């Protein structure tokens, strides 16, 4: 903003030159230019042009003048050099610090005020203008600046003031009914510049680096909102006092005023009643006394000014008039001393009143803060109640989910238990003991996958030979062979030995008809001769003998031989059974022929099968 010397001057020196060039071009106009320089450090106002006994200054709002800083030093300037010199002195007194981002970082907000008063000759009005050059401290992130200790406190105050300024700009841009000027001293001082009778120009600095992307966006939004504020400035004109009247009228008026003073218009002693009355009565009458003192002061000042002007004017006047003026000056001096004493008492009372007002203000602030705390606590309790209700609902939902999950887990556990018992049953009955021990030693639990795994087993040099079938359909172990006869679970076949329950008999055995003994003997002889002639020997081996031999061979492990014995026995029985049937057929035919010849009166087919006749055949 300040730039360098020569052609590279900044905006501030060029603004100073423009002001004085405009003053030089005006003729017939009187100007009074004064400057003030202050900084806002840690929310305290400091005077940068007068640092001796520099105590924090207060803000006051005066009707007609706006917000002013009390006891702020004002320096009159006659040229551009005077203004630059004043700014240089203020910059040297300004508070700066070192951070990671800037070696000479400003730790306060600075305001350079230029006040210009202008009055034209033979005019009853006076114009007043004010130029505020504001340097706002940079708002940087703590992570980038590395601020700690006092630097961190300074950054906190700076960010608070900038936040208040942003709120004011936002409220002005939105045409809000309430503008929070009083949130910060910075916004309070810039009240006229932001939303008052003024024109405002904001210059925003941004960085092109990508690391400053967020700060650049925030700065642009900040300036865009400030650009949305619309002000309509008008000229500040004050009517001048009637001090340039004719000489005759002023003399007559002066005489009248002097006579009033001499007659005791201001002869009231400031101590009258003051010492006898209590402090409460002084506080009640303080406003009236203040008004009287202000009126008296104004009248005395006006008289002094007018007398000085008259002295200049009366150089060419008569001597008697000068003598009368001197006498009036003596009386005015006396009245001034009286007014000074009254003013002193009024100042004491004013200080006391200010102290009481400050106490009242502090109490109001305490009450407001307590009320805010109560509201905050209520809101906090309300939020906690809502959160408590949501947590209770969540607990109920979680309990329902827990019950459902527990039921599912119990069902899964029961099913897993059934499967486990089934696998244990299979392992106990079908997996050899040696194999089970080997797999148990190889099993290992992997916590990463939460499951059991089998370690790799080294290749055996002498693997176990595959067991032989021993005439069974599938391979079988020696243990199963030994336990085959005693336990059905070790058998490869015929696991179940079921015996059928015979039904109740509903038939009778066949009873052949009785044969005459003579015929029976004849038939027996014939059959014997027939069998002898054919060399037939009917010998039916017993099946019990074959089964006994087969069981004995099975116990000895000769399964093939036992099977062969059973097959041979079966074939032999069928063969001899067929021969026996054939012999019976031949004998039957012979018997029928014999019966027919022995008893020709009977039909063989009827009598032989008739159950009613039991007489011997042929008798």
Automatic annotation (TrEMBL):
SUPFAM superfamilies in the cross-refs: P-loop containing nucleoside triphosphate hydrolases
Keyword Transmembrane helix included in the entry's annotation: yes
Any coiled-coil regions, as ranges: 286-313, 346-394
Composition bias type Acidic residues, residue spans: 272-284
Superkingdom of the organism of origin: Eukaryota
Keyword Nucleotide-binding: yes
Annotated region described as Disordered, given as residue ranges: 262-284
Record localization: Cytoplasm, Cytoskeleton
Entry-linked InterPro entries: Kinesin-like_fam, Kinesin_motor_CS, Kinesin_motor_dom, Kinesin_motor_dom_sf, P-loop_NTPase
PROSITE patterns tied to this protein: KINESIN_MOTOR_1 (PS00411), KINESIN_MOTOR_2 (PS50067)
Signal sequence, renumbered to the chain: none
An individual GO BP term: mitotic spindle organization
UniProt-recorded Gene Ontology molecular function terms: ATP binding; microtubule binding; microtubule motor activity
GO CC terms: microtubule; microtubule associated complex
Domain Kinesin motor as annotated: residue spans: 1-229
Record keywords: ATP-binding, Coiled coil, Cytoplasm, Cytoskeleton, Membrane, Microtubule, Motor protein, Nucleotide-binding, Transmembrane, Transmembrane helix
UniProt family annotation: Belongs to the TRAFAC class myosin-kinesin ATPase superfamily. Kinesin family.
Name of the molecule in the record: Kinesin-like protein
């Amino acid at each position: 903003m300040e730039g360098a010397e020569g052609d590279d001057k900044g905006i501030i020196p060029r603004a100073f030159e423009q002001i004085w060039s405009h003053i030089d071009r005006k003729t017939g106009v009187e100007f009074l230019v004064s400057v003030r320089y202050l900084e806002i450090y840690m929310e305290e106002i400091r005077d940068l042009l007068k640092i001796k006994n520099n105590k924090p200054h207060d803000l006051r709002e005066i009707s007609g003048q706006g917000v002013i800083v009390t006891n702020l030093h004002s320096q009159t300037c006659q040229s551009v050099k005077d203004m630059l010199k004043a700014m240089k002195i203020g910059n040297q007194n300004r508070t700066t610090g070192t951070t990671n981002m800037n070696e000479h970082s400003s730790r306060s907000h600075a305001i350079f005020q230029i006040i210009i008063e202008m009055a034209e000759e033979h005019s009853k009005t006076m114009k007043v203008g004010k130029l505020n050059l504001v340097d706002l401290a940079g708002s940087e992130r703590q992570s980038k600046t590395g601020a700690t200790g006092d630097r961190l406190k300074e950054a906190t105050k700076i960010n608070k003031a900038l936040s208040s300024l942003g709120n004011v700009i936002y409220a002005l841009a939105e045409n809000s009914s309430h503008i929070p000027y009083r949130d910060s001293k910075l916004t309070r001082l810039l009240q006229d510049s932001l939303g008052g009778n003024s024109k405002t120009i904001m210059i925003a600095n941004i960085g092109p680096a990508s690391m400053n992307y967020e700060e650049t966006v925030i700065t642009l939004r900040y300036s865009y909102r400030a650009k949305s504020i619309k002000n309509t400035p008008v000229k500040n004109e004050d009517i001048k006092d009637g001090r340039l009247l004719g000489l005759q009228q002023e003399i007559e008026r002066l005489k009248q005023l002097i006579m009033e003073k001499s007659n005791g218009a201001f002869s009231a002693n400031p101590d009258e009643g003051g010492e006898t009355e209590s402090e409460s009565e002084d506080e009640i009458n303080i406003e009236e006394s203040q008004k009287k003192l202000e009126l008296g002061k104004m009248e005395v000042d006006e008289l002094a000014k007018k007398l000085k002007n008259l002295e200049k004017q009366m150089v060419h006047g008569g001597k008697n008039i000068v003598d009368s003026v001197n006498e009036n000056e003596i009386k005015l001096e006396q009245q001034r001393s009286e007014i000074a004493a009254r003013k002193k008492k009024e100042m004491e009372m004013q200080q006391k009143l200010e102290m009481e007002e400050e106490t009242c203000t502090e109490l109001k602030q305490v009450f407001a803060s307590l009320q805010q705390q109560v509201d905050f606590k209520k809101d906090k309790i309300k939020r906690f109640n809502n959160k408590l209700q949501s947590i209770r609902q969540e607990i109920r939902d979680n309990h329902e989910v827990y019950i459902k999950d527990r039921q599912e887990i119990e069902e899964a556990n029961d099913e897993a238990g059934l499967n486990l018992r089934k696998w244990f049953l299979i392992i106990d009955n079908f997996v050899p003991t040696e194999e089970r021990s080997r797999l148990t030693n190889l099993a290992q639990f992997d916590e990463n996958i939460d499951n059991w795994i089998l370690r790799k087993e080294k290749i055996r040099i002498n693997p176990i030979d595959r067991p032989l079938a021993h005439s069974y359909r599938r391979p079988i172990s020696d243990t199963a062979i030994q336990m085959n006869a005693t336990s059905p679970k070790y058998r490869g076949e015929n696991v179940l030995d079921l015996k059928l329950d015979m039904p109740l008999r509903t038939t009778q055995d066949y009873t052949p008809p009785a044969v005459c003994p003579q015929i029976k003997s004849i038939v027996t002889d014939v059959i014997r001769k027939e069998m002898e002639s054919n060399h037939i020997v009917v010998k039916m081996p017993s099946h019990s003998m074959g089964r006994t031999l087969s069981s004995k061979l099975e116990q000895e492990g000769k399964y093939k031989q036992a099977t062969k014995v059973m097959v041979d026995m079966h074939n032999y029985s069928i063969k001899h059974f067929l021969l026996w049937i054939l012999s019976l057929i031949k004998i039957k035919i012979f018997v029928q022929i014999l019966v027919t010849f022995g008893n020709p009166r009977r039909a063989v087919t009827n009598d032989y099968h008739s159950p009613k006749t039991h007489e011997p055949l042929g008798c």
